[in-house]
C-alpha cells in the first residue's frame, strides 16, 4: 500500500475528491465494510507527479487518520519516506 485510512476515519468525505487517481472509495464501497473510507493500494501513487504531499491527508480533518504504509511493487512512491515510517502507524500529516 502507499497510504492507508485508519479506523478513526469519520467518513466525512473530504479526501475522496482530492485523489488524482481515484484510489479512494467511500464507506459504502469499502471492501472491509468497517464504516471508514478506504484506499486501494494498487491505485495509490502517494500523489507523486500530482501534489507535493498526499492530497487526501492534507484534506483530512481527523488528526492521524491517514498513515504511511508499505509500497506496492511497480507503484510510484515517495523516496524520502523510509521503511521506518511505513508501519501503518505514522501519520502522513503530523
Ligand atoms: S496519497 Fe494521493 S494518490 Fe494516494 S490515496 Fe491519497 S490522494 Fe490518492
Ligand atoms: S477526510 Fe479523513 S476522516 Fe474524512 S473520509 Fe477521508 S480519511 Fe475519513
Could you describe the 3D structure shown?
- The protein is largely without helices or strands and 94 residues long.
- It has one domain: Alpha-Beta Plaits (2-Layer Sandwich).
- The protein is 5% helix and 11% strand.
- It is built from one helix and four strands; from the N terminus they run βββαβ.
- It has one helix spanning 55-59, and strands at 3-5, 24-25, 38-39, 66-68.
- The longest helix is centred in the middle third of the chain and has 5 residues, at 55-59.
- The model has no long low-confidence stretch (mean pLDDT 96).
The CATH topology comes to: Alpha-Beta Plaits
Q: Based on the coordinates given, report the CATH architecture.
A: 2-Layer Sandwich
Helix proportion range: under 10%
**What small molecules accompany the polymer chains?**
iron/sulfur cluster
Instruction: Quote the beta fraction.
Output: 5-15%
User: How widely separated are the two ends?
Assistant: 19 Å
Task: Give the number of DSSP strands.
Answer: 4
Organism: Helicobacter canadensis MIT 98-5491
InterPro entries: 4Fe4S_Fe-S-bd, 4Fe4S_Fe_S_CS
Protein name: Ferredoxin, 4Fe-4S
GO molecular function, one term: metal ion binding
Q: Any chance you could write out the topology, listing elements then pairs?
A:
Blueprint lengths: L2 E3 L18 E2 L12 E2 L15 H5 L6 E3 L26
Antiparallel strand pairs: 1-4, 2-3
Keywords:
globular; little secondary structure; two-stranded antiparallel ribbon; 1 helix; 94 residues; single chain; Alpha-Beta Plaits; binds iron/sulfur cluster; 4 strands
Amino acid at each position: 500500500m502507499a497510504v492507508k485510512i485508519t479506523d478513526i476515519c469519520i467518513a466525512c468525505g473530504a479526501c475522496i475528491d482530492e485523489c488524482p487517481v481515484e484510489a479512494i472509495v467511500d464507506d459504502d464501497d469499502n471492501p472491509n465494510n468497517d464504516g471508514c473510507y478506504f484506499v486501494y493500494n494498487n491505485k495509490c501513487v502517494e500523489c507523486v507527479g500530482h501534489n507535493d504531499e498526499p492530497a487526501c491527508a492534507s484534506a483530512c480533518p481527523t488528526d492521524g487518520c491517514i498513515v504511511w504504509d508499505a509500497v506496492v511493487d511497480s507503484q510510484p512512491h515517495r523516496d524520502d519516506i523510509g521503511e521506518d515510517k511505513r508501519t501503518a502507524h505514522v501519520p502522513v500529516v503530523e
